[in-house]
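Issue 218. Parser rejects a valid record. Input:
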Amino acid sequence: MNQPRYIVVEGPIGVGKTSLARKLADTLGGDLILEQAESNPFLERFYREPRSAALPTQLFFLCQRASQVQAMRQADMFQPVRVADYLLQKDNIFARLTLDEDEYRLYAQVYEKFAVDAPEPDLVIYLQAPVNVLMDRILRRGVDYERLIEAEYLERVNEAYTRFFFDYDSSPLLIVNTVDFDFEQREEDYQALFDRIQSINRGRHYYNPISAALL
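Output the parser choked on:
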């Protein structure tokens, strides 16, 4: 198969998408495109006061992502592989999840003005984990404001991702169950996943691995 030149890793907060994107970019010698959530000045306020801070949080992310997509469009697409830790369409997932109807109409108008034309990935990797696993991983990484995230919110995020990817067919898709799998700490686990990624060139695929640590 041809080597995919644009790979996107997606999934809910805490699932490991940025870590996997970093490892893939390093393995493939590619450019890394990160969401950079920590640069959003409204994000901590959103976790503290979700109702009042949802709109500025979402608009900041939209501007940030649109700028990154524009830069990617203007760059030479024949440069090395690009690996991103977000899919542009996720912006609408969270807008629907966090905004009321009036706010969402304003958001949709702004989105339309940007006229964002994101390139379609050659492969999307959707990482899954249940809420209890996500909560544990979020707590272990020790970002203070992320400790404010509630299980109920994560449940809604998980459900929104499930609905989105149920119908997703714009790119080849690999759905990975990460519950018993540690691609960050165990090279055997990462290599097994990388080998699976290398075998995909079309369609929808599922990967439900067992960590080498459990064998």
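Fixed in the parser; the record now loads. The radius of gyration is 17 Å.
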